[in-house]
Amino acid sequence: PFQRGAAVRIVLVGPMGAGKSTVGSVLADQLGLARFDSDQLFVRVHGPIPDYFQAHGEPAFRAAEEELVGEVLSHHEPFVLSLGGGSVLSAQTRSRLGRGCRVVNLVVDEHTALDRLDGGVGRPVLAGDPVRNWLRILREREGLYREISHDTIDTSGLSTEQVAHAIIERM
Ligand code: S3P
């Protein structure tokens, strides 16, 4: 059984609206672990994500995201880390996750996801046609989520606590 405060590195991946941030904070509380969230780290260092996208473009965002995630992975342990949905696009991040992290893929259907995201507010990659873009982006990334994860949990219809519980139970 899982020991509170054990030396684990739990990383939550999956599309926008899967609940990575909310599940990450509940999980960290329950397990007595430090908690990191790549989007929050990003905002703290670089300001709001939509503003950054507009000023510098997506490639600059990805480079900055990769660097922040790399810092967490190399300097901290144990932890629960919630990653922005596109973090897995980085080969460097994927390879770093392969070293000693338990990666959990949170999946969700598009309607539940967009409900949780308030229709896509603050997510520049969804701008225009949020449902269509969400589905297209998922198709581009689902192979990567699957490839790097040890466990997959469908969060549609589950509460944050239920997802956290499922993650702990299956470790
Ligand atoms: C993105 C997901 C967002 C955020 C940025 C880009 C993506 O994070 O990093 O808006 O490309 O999927 P969440 O997955 O936490 O919404």
Automatic annotation (TrEMBL):
It catalyses: shikimate + ATP = 3-phosphoshikimate + ADP + H(+). PROSITE patterns: SHIKIMATE_KINASE. The keyword Metal-binding applies. Keywords: Amino-acid biosynthesis, Aromatic amino acid biosynthesis, ATP-binding, Cytoplasm, Kinase, Magnesium, Metal-binding, Nucleotide-binding, Transferase. Pathway: Metabolic intermediate biosynthesis; chorismate biosynthesis; chorismate from D-erythrose 4-phosphate and phosphoenolpyruvate: step 5/7. Its cofactor is Mg(2+). The keyword Kinase applies. Binds 1 Mg(2+) ion per subunit. Substrate binds at D39, R62, G85, R141. This is Shikimate kinase. It comes from Citricoccus muralis. The lineage of its organism: Bacteria, Bacillati, Actinomycetota, Actinomycetes, Micrococcales. The gene is aroK.
